[in-house]
Here is the input.
Amino acid sequence: MAAGAEENEEYEEPEAVELPLFDPELYPRSYCASLGWRLVILACSALLALGALCGLALFDFASLLNSTPLAALFLIALFAVFLGLGLYGLLYGFRFRVTLVADHVELVEPFRRHSLQRSEILGRRVLPGGQGFSVIVLVSSHAEHNKLRIPVLLKPDEAFRRWFYDLTDLDRSEVFQSRIDIEATFRPELPAEEKSRQVTRLRRLGAAFNAATIALLGASFVLPDTGLWLLATVAALPWVAIVLVARFQPLYRFAVRRNDERVDLILPLITPGLILAVHAVSNLNTVGWQKPLVLACAGGLALTGTSVRVDSWLRQQRWAVLIVGLFACIYGYAAGLESNALADHSVPQVYLVKVLSKEVSESSHVKSWDLTLEPCGPVSDQETVSVSETEYQRIRAGDAVCVELRAGALQVPWYRVGHCNSQKGYRSPQRPYTTRYR
Here is the structure.
């Protein structure tokens, strides 16, 4: 066994001048997990399995089964999954082995054994696995999806590196190919020097746009009161990204590959919907779910269809299209509700409703002040609604509040809750709704 118990180090690409070509005389050689990684895997797995066993042994499932059987079954299944993961990790620490033979490679794991002939390997990739180790991916020439992933939980020696050294580096090949494609297809009528200047300038623009997206998303969480200007800017980001991709193809694309040197604008396309959704859910209360669902589908189809139409590369990525469609539906739901409320000039119907209880809930950076109202008017059942912090402090459990129901600019009925003024009957808030990010 070669270097099985030595300290592990991350696999690094060898320099061409350091190693000769592949030498069949050095093999077979077998490698197991290094001592450091084996101790880490075994310790974590043992703690996970022990915690699951303690949970199964000490938890009073009998009484829980009588009161809430679904919760009991869920906990039993959860502990069983943790126990299975712990036992699998224990087996993995002892069973993990990589065997290099002159004509093939073999990976042994707890319940399976993988092998790949050297003559069938199209090339290799190196993926960062995190926490100090890498993953070598060997791609078969028969099918792109037929891959062998080898976690480098061992001490790579010279023989280990030699075996992989002269295999085609697919990561580097894809980088070179993307450069060739950009040079051949982006503004072919321009001189080489001018084209290089434009590519450099547009790369900086794309990087700045992605950075601005991250800054705006962070600001929407940090600012105590997100203004309408920030919401409008966030809502415009996906459409700006679509315009940029349509204008500067093929340099700009959505969902590019890891080793592609094109600028990927998928971040401003899919993330704004999440921020708008947090704001809409925290501040807008709708009557029924059918019409908001229509808004989500309509907005999702519009955003997804437009992005697919302008980017021929995205049309070829089925899973990427599905993911974009999911985020686009979230965007359609949130942007639709925001527009429905902001552009609403209908005459409100006001209902006097009793507050049954009040509670402050906080999740991550999002804080909301919630009231539980009795059934009345647009609230058919006891329902928890969000109000501003000022209204929350003014209202006590047992008080009566005014619920203002509006038709909605997009014909989606929505309502807001406010403190009733004894002199004027209802004190309408100055703004339709306020953000409560902390």
Summary: The chain is about 45% helix and 20% strand. Residues 1-10, 422-438 have pLDDT under 50 and may be disordered.
